[in-house]
Design a protein that fits this description.
This protein is globular. Helix content is 38%, strand content 17%. It is α/β, with parallel strands linked by helices and 448 residues long. Among the domains are: 193 residues, Dihydrodipicolinate Reductase, domain 2, CATH 3.30.360.10; 70 residues. Helix 8 crosses helix 10 and helix 13 packs across helix 15. A nine-stranded mixed β-sheet has the order 12-11-10-9-5-8-7-6-13. A four-stranded parallel β-sheet has the order 1-2-3-4, sandwiched between helices.
């Protein structure tokens, strides 16, 4: 058995390495085997699973070998962050195709995005391959053509079987997977963004563990992953998306049913039936057209109806274009799909709408605390310690910056304590004393 790369006679060879060959890793191996080319090195966790491949003890050894141009990261979710950071920071550039989700937290996604910005010599694509399922791709094209008009509502239903067994049962726990809405549903949140042509603002979700995994115990712990949920996503252009997830619905004709409604018409996609239906308001029910969606490029159907094969075609094409075109699914796409999922998980926990900004705040707060620590040389000004005695020692520019940062952090707290409020009042009082010279303070804030 060999892993190969698609190549025309004159096309340059692209050598692949795969980190993690569980279920999805093997899926990638099969897809690569259906592309034309030559053998490439592979990393496996259990060498007994595969023969005929170059085996490494870990991703560090693979990167140091110099044998790969591109790396597919298909290890468990909670390992993505460190592996990605190691690849991005390696002296030799390696292009990356990382399985969804990008990372399990928004903060880790942000760090990966920031690190990748420093490497213009590598391409990073996120494995949100549902975009390429023929009926979904056809519906995306229909929406982009304007046939449906301005999209106002997106409804996605996934009724399917429970989570499969994974290596060491890592996918049974939120701390490893990021939660069901991150692990499974980032695909659908990505599609919602595509259909709405907008970015998410806030999320409301309701979900529970009602049927699956309730009688399972691993190392004394019961799984905490939800098996059903409703999720509402509001976008910045006023459109809305709704996800209906059920993972104990094996009796469904279709696993995914997608509905996109604009002010002119409606489009639907059904998987695995591979049917697309399109109708306009003016035509009514009799005007609905049914289309069979196929893609003749697919040489291997695999676990995702050929979408993983098309994903690899797109990834390989982007690599060969050498920066002339970015990845079809970039890091921002990966980050926002995770952010919506995290917001949904948090919404279930708190029983309220959760903003996307709120999910990113812990990352922002951490960075601000680091900046404050460097500026003021205090232990933790971001935690609102009683620092009134230190206020008089601050330069005007530092005082202004401190005021703005503390004000923003104060507004982000649900119920600030009296100590926090008193500290902020002390800061405000000090500022008021200096109001006579406010113009000079602001001027110095820019000069310093």
């Amino acid at each position: 058995m060999a892993t190969t790369t698609a190549t025309a006679a004159a096309a340059p060879e692209v050598r692949y390495g795969i980190v993690g060959v569980g279920m999805m890793g093997r899926e990638h191996l099969h897809n690569l085997a259906h592309l034309a080319g030559r053998v490439v090195p592979v990393v496996v966790l259990n060498p007994k699973r595969l023969e005929g491949f170059k085996i490494f003890s870990g991703h560090g050894e693979l990167l140091d070998s110099g044998l790969c141009d591109a790396v597919v990261v298909s290890s468990p979710n909670m390992t993505h962050y460190q592996i990605l950071m190691d690849i991005i920071s390696h002296a030799k550039p390696h292009h990356i195709l990382v399985e969804k989700p990008l990372c399990t937290t928004v903060q880790d996604c942000q760090k990966v995005v920031e690190a990748a910005k420093q490497r213009s010599d590598i391409l990073v694509q996120v494995g949100l391959e549902y975009r390429y399922m023929p009926p979904v791709a056809k519906l995306i094209d229909t929406v982009k053509s304007g046939t449906l008009g301005q999209v106002r509502m997106v409804a996605i239903r996934e009724h399917r079987f429970p989570f499969l067994v994974k290596v060491n049962n890592w996918n049974r726990f939120n701390c490893n997977s990021g939660g069901t809405l991150v692990e499974k549903c980032c695909h659908f949140f990505d599609l919602m963004r595509l259909f709405a042509a907008a970015n998410p603002v806030r999320v409301m979700a309701s979900g529970a563990i009602d049927v699956n995994h309730k009688d399972e115990i691993y190392d004394g712990k019961v799984p905490d992953i939800i098996d059903n949920a409703y999720v509402i996503v509001e976008f910045d252009n006023g459109s809305r998306g709704m996800l209906d997830l059920c993972m104990f619905a094996e009796g469904s004709r279709n696993e995914q049913e997608i509905s996109v409604v604009g002010d002119i018409g409606k489009g639907e996609a059904f998987v695995p039936e591979s049917i697309v239906r399109v109708g306009k308001r003016t035509g009514g029910r009799d005007g609905v057209v049914t289309i069979m969606a196929e893609d003749e490029r697919i040489k291997y159907q695999g676990l995702h109806h050929g979408s993983s094969y098309l994903e690899h075609l797109n990834f390989l094409s982007a690599i060969r274009l050498q920066g002339a075109s970015g990845p079809s699914v970039d890091l921002t796409d990966g980050l926002l799909s995770v952010a919506i999922g995290v917001a949904g998980q948090l919404s279930i926990e708190k029983g309220r709408f959760v903003t996307i900004e709120e999910c990113a705040n812990s990352w922002m707060m951490t960075m601000k605390k680091k900046k404050i620590h460097l500026l003021f040389n205090e232990v933790d000004l971001g935690a609102f310690t009683n620092c009134s005695s230190a206020l008089g020692t601050l330069k005007p520019s530092q005082l202004v910056l401190r005021l703005f940062i503390d004000l923003e952090m104060l507004t982000m707290m649900e119920s600030p304590s009296q100590t926090v409020l008193r500290t902020f009042i002390d800061l405000m009082t000090t500022m008021m004393v200096m109001m006579k010279d406010l113009q000079q303070i602001v001027l110095r804030s820019f000069i310093d």
